[in-house]
Amino acid sequence: MSGQVFPVPNHVETAAFKTALRAVVGSVSIVASGQGTDRRGLTVTAAVSLCADPPMVLACINRGAEAHDVILATGAFSWNVLSADQVQLAERFAAMDGSKGAARFAADEWDERVTGVPVLRQSVCSFDCRLQDSVEAATHTIMIGVVVGQIHNKDKVPLIYSLGKFGRMEYFDSDR
Ligand SMILES: Cc1cc2nc3c(=O)[nH]c(=O)nc-3n(C[C@H](O)[C@H](O)[C@H](O)COP(=O)(O)O)c2cc1C
Fold this sequence. Notes:
By secondary structure, this protein is mostly beta strands. It contains three helices and twelve strands. It has helices at about 15-20, 65-75, 85-90, and strands spanning about 25, 30-35, 40-45, 45-50, 55-60, 75-80, 110, 120, 125-135, 140-150, 160, 165-170.
């Protein structure tokens, strides 16, 4: 585990950075961890694959998020990529509907695979990960995981987020 020294000099204005970031398109996911009443999860756009051999992913989690310390304590997390028909889940796990803690997890939506953390069944794809490393970076911690189990629903279309709105992708050429 390693930390970094902040603040850094000569950076752009935070407000301008946030405005520019609104134009970036992100895929919408839920990062989840814990078990039973200790389950916690949050909606994220800052989660991506890291490498394929071995299969590794990373997620940037705000230290203030309830799931943050649960991921570190459990040593595992899931990365669940949401489909375009799962906007309600994205809103629930971003606290937009006022829900908190383990109450965000509906019994029929979540499964357990290898690590025992909640894994979303009807996602585009879900990755069950053992926490390999964590790197502190200012307000966030980069959680690095090795994928030990996965679900892939090939018929699902990904949910995206840009300009402060949820949406779905339009492919220019569906034949390629
Ligand atoms: C579209 C979207 C993307 C988000 N991406 C992240 C992210 O990448 N990392 C993060 O820590 N929080 C992110 N958040 C904020 C968390 O989902 C939100 O603060 C959540 O309520 C934190 O969980 P808690 O309420 O259990 O503490 C995002 C929110 C939205 C709506």
